[in-house]
């Protein structure tokens, strides 16, 4: 794909992602869906970046100029756009966000009518339209822009109905990353009775993800301890990720979150096929701990789209990544940080215990990742001597660790990941493999 990557059309604003791109994408969506229905309905959400407003208006202009109706949810989360697109009968949804990236980046995600990421075939059509290699006929009658804040409100009502317990008496910290969750998260937790402590909830268009949120959870860790909170949750810019902090200020990443939720589901006979879907980057400690509870891991390549595909093709109900992208198939078909936080809080209340007790039995192995810049990723990944060395290291480590060699999907990098009982062992194995790789 030329413009669209694994998570939409993303780039630096007014450089690789421009106003003209957004107008043309809006035109394409309006014209494409007008082929099958008289007036297409397309819903748009955005995060708090300054450029999101420019791109929102440009998309809306493109859609309406092509005869479609643009429904504006304003500042909201990616999962809320997914929910509304699926449940309110929209032809597609658009989310304007660059997730955990800095404010000067932005992106355009296209969501299909089922609430999933749009497929590559459709996105290829958009790319062809952007490059002028195809044309579509526009409607003679322009469409209209419609305020759709009510869609966000119904999403809030939906999430607030999922927990089985009242959160009354629990002190919960929420780090909104100065992103989209600031407009949603407090309302839901307050509706459920929690005493909510907010941080990074004053977006100014430029401070999204700046030393806060799921990419910088250390602020929340300190915040939880200082305010004697029961737990804290950190979201990213568009709130499709969540990390947890226990009452001691210890971070619980996506692996720990999957462990907590999978155990709970297993205990309540709700864990389909006793299986969790996780990527190859999930810690070996997670696999060992889940095995001790009769739960297996179905592994995928890195990327939440691979996790979702594995889950829904095989009927699994939970999957995710270390980054905090957690998909809970009972309630959503995409990662939803606020939903994850609600489910974790519900489990905490149900357990009548402290948050740190929820990860009992999970021992995370030290994990180190080394990125090596190379001229030819394919040559490295096909080198028999290097692959033989990786096999040799894994044979030596056996059940006490592992070595994983991966090529970056977007950069000229080879990633060497090692898990072992100590950081010193990790360093030794990384060094033994790195010295065999011809660098750039």
SSE map:
Layout: E1 4-5, E2 8-12, H1 19-34, E3 41-46, H2 50-65, E4 69-75, H3 78-87, E5 92-96, E6 105-111, H4 120-130, E7 145-147, H5 149-160, E8 171-175, H6 185-191, E9 195-199, H7 218-226, E10 231-235, E11 242-245, E12 251-252, H8 254-267, E13 275-279, H9 284-291, E14 296-300, H10 304-314, E15 318-320, E16 326-328, H11 337-351, E17 367-373, H12 377-381, H13 384-397, E18 402-407, E19 413-419, H14 423-434
Parallel strand pairs: 3-4, 3-5, 4-7, 8-9, 8-10, 13-14, 13-15
Antiparallel strand pairs: 1-2, 2-6, 5-6, 10-11, 11-12, 15-16, 17-19, 18-19
How would you describe the overall organization of this protein?
This protein is an alpha/beta fold and 440 residues long. The chain is built from 14 helices and 19 strands. The strands form four sheets. Strands 1-2-6-5-3-4-7 form a seven-stranded mixed beta sheet, sandwiched between helices. The longest helix is centred in the first third of the chain and has 16 residues. The model has no long low-confidence stretch (mean pLDDT 95).
């Amino acid at each position: 794909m030329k413009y669209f990557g694994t998570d939409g059309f993303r780039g630096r604003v007014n450089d690789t992602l421009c106003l003209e791109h957004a107008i043309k994408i809006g035109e394409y969506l309006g014209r494409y869906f007008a082929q099958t229905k008289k007036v297409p309905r397309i819903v748009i959400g955005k995060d708090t970046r300054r450029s999101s407003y420019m791109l929102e208006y440009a998309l809306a202009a493109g859609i309406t100029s092509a005869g479609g109706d643009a429904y504006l949810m304003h500042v909201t989360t990616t999962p809320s756009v997914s929910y509304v697109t699926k449940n309110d009968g929209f032809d597609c949804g658009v989310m304007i966000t660059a997730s955990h990236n800095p404010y000067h980046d932005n992106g355009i995600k296209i969501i299909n009518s089922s609430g999933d990421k749009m497929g590559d075939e459709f996105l290829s059509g958009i790319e062809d339209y952007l490059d002028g290699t195809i044309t579509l006929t526009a409607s003679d009658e322009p469409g209209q822009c419609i305020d759709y804040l009510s869609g966000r409100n119904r999403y809030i009502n939906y999430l607030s109905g999922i927990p089985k317990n009242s959160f009354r008496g629990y002190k919960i910290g929420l780090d909104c990353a100065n992103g989209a969750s600031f407009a949603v998260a407090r309302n839901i937790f307050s509706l459920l009775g929690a005493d909510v402590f907010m941080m990074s909830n004053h977006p100014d268009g430029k401070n999204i993800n700046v030393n806060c949120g799921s990419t910088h959870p250390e602020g929340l860790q300190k915040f939880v301890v200082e305010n004697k909170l029961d737990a804290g949750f950190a979201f990213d810019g568009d709130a499709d990720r969540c990390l947890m902090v226990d009452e001691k200020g210890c971070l619980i990443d996506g692996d720990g979150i999957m462990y907590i939720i999978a155990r709970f589901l297993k205990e309540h006979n709700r864990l389909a096929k006793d299986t969790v879907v996780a990527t190859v980057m999930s810690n070996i400690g997670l696999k060992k701990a889940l095995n001790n509870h009769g739960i297996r891991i179905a592994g995928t390549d890195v990327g939440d789209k691979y996790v979702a595909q594995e889950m829904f093709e095989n009927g699994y109900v939970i999957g995710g990544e270390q980054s905090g992208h957690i998909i809970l198939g009972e309630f959503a078909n995409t990662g939803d940080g606020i939903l994850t936080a609600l489910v974790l809080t519900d489990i905490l209340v149900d357990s009548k215990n402290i948050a740190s007790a929820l990860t009992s039995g999970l021992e995370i192995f030290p994990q180190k990742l080394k990125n090596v810049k190379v001229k030819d990723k394919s040559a490295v990944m096909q080198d028999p001597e290097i692959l033989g060395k990786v096999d040799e290291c894994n044979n030596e480590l056996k059940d006490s660790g592992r070595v994983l060699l991966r090529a970056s999907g977007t950069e000229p990098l080879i990633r060497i990941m090692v898990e072992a009982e100590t950081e010193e062992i990790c360093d030794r194995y990384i060094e033994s493999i790195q010295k065999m790789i011809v660098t750039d």
